[in-house]
Amino acid sequence: MSDPLLSFLGLTRRAGKLSCGHDAAIDAIVQNRAKLCFCASDASERLQRELRHACTYGGKAIEIRALPYDMKLLSHAIGTKAAVITIDEEGFANKLRALLTAQEKTGKEES
Fold first, then answer.
1. Strands 36-39 and 63-66, bridge-based pairing
2. Total of domains in the chain
């Protein structure tokens, strides 16, 4: 896999710092383990709305970002079917934020 963001998501999964899928992600958010939440580009509006609510409910301020990948590509990278994931460790979350920001800047420069 040549995409650094997808490769790092796979590494995060192997390290056990990723909660994959709706139920696992909501559980990580409720238990305050989630540091960052990602949605696949083709996640339903209902799912995105539910996650936004969970990430802000009760004074929480968990960042939620859309990935530039559909569920099929995301699932391939992490090894399990999922449209939503949470990153459950701050170091991994910071690295993924940096990779996503760098990718967004590169994409804008190419346009």
1. parallel
2. 1
